[in-house]
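Appendix C: a fully annotated inverse folding record. The material below is reproduced so that readers can follow the format used throughout the book. The structure is listed first as tokens, followed by the designed sequence.
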């Protein structure tokens, strides 16, 4: 198939890492365990499939929505870079700028949305379109949904094995990676915007 001509392991790894850092499912383990204690059971399959579908649909439909409202992908990617930048600051500094509302169920809300496929994840997914090929972003999304599923299924076990100190370190490491990626997204898309206006 023609779509597989753009297949790239390097792009898949990058897309996976970006989405993994934004979703931050490891850092969400305490929240997941708390939800499990509150509701008795987390529907891991339902939550994972829903989150994956939301990301995939937004990857393809999101661009059409942008065209409808007259916003180009580069401008959206720059906006996404700012969102990623803020998420990275939250992770590095341990602050909470955007607070998640209280849970009402333990599958679709708040796990699939907004915990996994939240505003930051959807913005990032569409922002990646400006830098990477669709097939590689799709694989990045699929790999992340598999990882999310594994975490949801073994949340209690992970909490016992991973201490608070390790979680804090992982959060800061991925925060720094995310910060660097947000700057790259901003500079690359800003340069394209400037070039487009100059040529215009």
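Designed amino acids, in order:
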């Amino acid at each position: 198939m023609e779509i597989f001509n753009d297949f790239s392991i390097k792009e898949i790894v990058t897309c996976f890492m970006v989405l993994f850092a934004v979703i931050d499912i490891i850092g969400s383990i305490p929240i997941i365990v708390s939800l499990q204690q509150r509701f008795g059971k987390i529907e891991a399959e339902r939550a994972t499939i829903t989150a994956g579908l939301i990301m995939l649909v937004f990857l393809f439909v999101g661009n059409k929505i942008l065209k409808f409202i007259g916003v180009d992908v580069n401008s959206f990617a720059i906006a996404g870079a700012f969102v990623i930048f803020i998420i990275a600051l939250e992770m590095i500094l341990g602050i909470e700028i955007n607070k998640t509302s209280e849970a009402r169920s333990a599958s679709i809300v708040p796990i699939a949305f907004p915990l996994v496929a939240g505003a930051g994840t959807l913005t990032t997914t569409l922002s990646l379109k400006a830098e990477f090929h669709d097939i590689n972003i799709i694989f990045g999304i699929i790999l992340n949904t598999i990882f999310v599923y594994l975490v949801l299924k073994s949340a209690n076990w992970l909490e016992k094995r991973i201490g608070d100190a390790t979680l804090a370190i992982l959060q800061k490491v991925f925060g720094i990676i995310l910060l660097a990626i947000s700057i790259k997204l901003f500079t690359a898309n800003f340069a394209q915007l400037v070039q487009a206006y100059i040529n215009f």
